[in-house]
Amino acid sequence: GLTGWVSNALGAALHPGVSFATTFQGRSNVAITPAPADDLFTAKIFPVDTSRKYVIRASVWVGEGTGSVVNHIGYVSFDAAGNTLHPVNSASWAATTEGVGATSTQLPNAGWVEYKSKPITGEGLQSFNQFRPGTKGIRLAAFVNSAANRTVETALDGIWLEDVTESEAAKAQATASATSAANAAASAALAGEKATASQTSATAADT
């Protein structure tokens, strides 16, 4: 519901015009965002362990209209005391919010568009897919219709944080096993070729 959202990193009230629908386009508990654009941040600050891996997912409705729509998802980092770990102008999207590789331009009439970030892990300032040094918690964020297309209705079903540490490790292990199996097969094939070549040479010598 509307109580789960704020309009910036500091926890300010939602902008006028944002509404809440118990049902909308086949979904429930959806935030309807007014044209031309709006920021939605989770009121809750989610605790994170920066040694683990996370992805952020979001589901955005893009309705009828003309032109295109740009949506972003991201996060705001906080330290153990609840202070933002971003530049001073901490009420603006650009200054506070890390985009995490899930920015997309969608044509109108796209319906529900699903976003998923790349894994976010570790601490540093070189990548949006790293948490800022000292991060202990994050607010999830969505900048809906950032290009301010006034012809299109947009809505946010939700934004979710998912710990993927184990699943990413399993994926890496499966990839490593597949690579090892492929290398073993290639080695066996090469050994077979060498054996055939040796047999051919021996036959030629006998002749």
What does this structure look like?
- The chain is α+β, with helices and mostly antiparallel strands and 207 residues long.
- 22% of the residues lie in helices and 34% in strands.
- The protein has helices at residues 93-96, 165-206, and strands at residues 5-6, 19-24, 27-33, 38-42, 46-47, 54-62, 69-78, 98-99, 104-106, 111-116, 137-144, 154-163.
- Strands 1, 4, 5, 7, 8, 9 and 11 form a seven-stranded antiparallel sheet that branches. A five-stranded antiparallel sheet has the order 2-3-12-6-10, with no helix packed on it.
- The protein is elongated, with a radius of gyration of 25 Å.
- The termini are far apart.
- The model is unreliable at 88-95 (pLDDT under 50).
Characteristic terms for this protein:
207 residues; alpha+beta; seven-stranded antiparallel sheet; five-stranded antiparallel sheet; elongated
- Structural class of the secondary elements? alpha+beta
Q: What is the rounded distance between the termini?
A: 88 Å
- The number of helical runs is 2
Q: What is the mean pLDDT?
A: 79
Total number of β-strand segments? 12
The string of secondary-structure elements, in order, is EEEEEEEHEEEEEH
Strand content: 25-35%
Low-confidence stretches: 88-95
Helix content: 10-25%
Question: What topology emerges from the helices and strands here?
Answer:
Elements: E1 5-6, E2 19-24, E3 27-33, E4 38-42, E5 46-47, E6 54-62, E7 69-78, H1 93-96, E8 98-99, E9 104-106, E10 111-116, E11 137-144, E12 154-163, H2 165-206
Antiparallel strand pairs: 1-4, 2-3, 3-12, 4-11, 5-11, 6-10, 6-12, 7-8, 7-9, 7-11
